[in-house]
Amino acid sequence: MPAQDMLARRFETHRGHLRAVAYRMLGSVSEADDAVQEAWLRLARQDSDEVDNLVGWLTTVVSRICLDMLRTRASRREEPIYLLAELGDTAYDSDPEHEAVLIDSVGRALLVVLDTLGPDERVAFVLHDLFAVPFDQIAPIVGRTTATTKKLASRARQRAQGETTATATELAEQRHVVEAFLTAARGGNLDALLAVLAPDVVRVADPAALPAGMAAIVRGAQAVAKETVLLQRRSRVAALALMNGAVGIVVAPHGKLLLALVVTVRDDRVTGYEVIADPTRLRALHLAVLPQ
User: Which of the four pLDDT bands, split at 50, 70 and 90, describes residue 80?
Assistant: First the structure.
């Protein structure tokens, strides 16, 4: 077998791993595939006899490619937050099957949080915390010392974990109620929604978050539940997240933040929630991943 064909076969055995690394760094299927393809082109130009650890070499190359892409995004001030006006009717389309598998493997909320990190923080966190790459191997990729690289990952970890003043019991109670609400919304189950909503629940929303003709404020369980059923599509791309220290919901098609629901829970019921769509307000939220 020609040497190039053998190299291609060896590369293909690592494609899944490389794609997983790139997707977590970039949060985009198409960009991750581009990064992996670029890694192959660089390998094809490399003398394979000089590569002792192929998967390690490829992981480093893909990481550097992704870091360059992330830094380019940052220099162009590209926003990870989608604008409803730009997405139109496609805003709440379910993710394509191959993308949904990747999102499920990472976690929709984690993808949203990763988008809030700086390029170097994201790369350091992804490589160390998600793929167990040692810091001394990450440091040359981000161009920092090992000690500084540890600090980058630590800052990212703190952001991902978030902070809350709620006790573990309070957080668990919030999670139980908000999860029940989201499950009922996904199923379009009116009775289950009425069971989890307080009778005098109030839903407030940014105008941009609502279809034309819907009121900015809706009061009462019946009205809120019926509206939630009508907007069932949104719940398919939603996930629980820690939001300003409490359990809330992010709506994130393709893993990109579109809406946030700041939920208030009292006495095992949802007593109110605000739907935030304004990009400035979304960026001001302290988002984190719920503890397992």
Answer: low
Give, to the nearest 10 degrees, the angle between helix 29-44 and helix 54-75.
130
225 pLDDT higher than 90 = yes
User: Across-strand partners of 246?
Assistant: 243
- 123 and 199 both lie in a single domain: no
Mutual angle of helices 54-75 and 135-142, in 10-degree steps: 40
The one-letter code for the residue type at 275 is V
Residue 28 lies in a domain: yes
Domain that holds residue 214: 168-288
| Gap between the Cα atoms of 243 and 25, Å rounded | 22
d(CA 292, CA 290): 6
Which residue type occupies 225? A
**Range name among 6-10, 46-50, 62-66, 201-205 with the lowest pLDDT average:** 46-50
| Domain identity same for 272 and 192 | yes
80 close to 115: Cβ distance less than 8 angstroms: yes
Task: List pLDDT tens digits, range 170-191.
Answer: 999 999 999 999 999 999 999 9
Contact present, 177 and 171 (Cβ < 8 Å): no
